Amino acid sequence: xxxxxxxxxxxxxALDETGLAENTIVVLIGDHGWNLGDHKLWAxxxxxxxxxxxxxxxxxxxxxxxQNINNIVEFIDIFPTLTSATNINNPSLLPxxxxxxxxxxxxxxxxxxxxxxxxxxxxxxxxxxxxEWIDKDDKVTTNMLFxxxxxxxxxxxxANSPKHxxxxxxxxxxxxxxxxxxxxxxxxIEGKKGEREE
Length: 198
Fold this sequence. Notes:
By secondary structure, the chain is an alpha+beta fold. It is 32% helix and 18% strand. It has six helices and six strands. The radius of gyration is 20 Å and the shape is globular.
């Protein structure tokens, strides 16, 4: 981490010294997080926050001033952010939304993120992390709900708590409405692969 930080510092310093910082956007993103025994896992592939929370640093001339923003965003928001910042028109079917309004301290167009690992779909909204694992017929086989305001380490699964039935129903609806057009395409492809193998 220290080595990467030092290299990034060299790049930013070079941009400043050459005057290129005035018209250069810098984006730093990280790969998945990693479980180091968390939830009895040693891997980066899962639907827990330890893996889904990753670094995203933007430096946009005239927009950023070293502030921290705690809104929920997705990597699919990076491309529309770059096109917006450079005044390039987005393709009509482009997923994601520009983060420039957040840099101007305006309310974001969306306040949730959706992640997927295999058959597990996670929606992150407000303090909640909600995950559904679904079968080939799009039925929920199991689920988990964590309230990060009380349980940031995700140790207490609230999915079976009657107190959270409405929360789960609302998050399920939002997840299903926004998980993307590729969901059904992925399912058809997986089905065809299975048919060929049988």
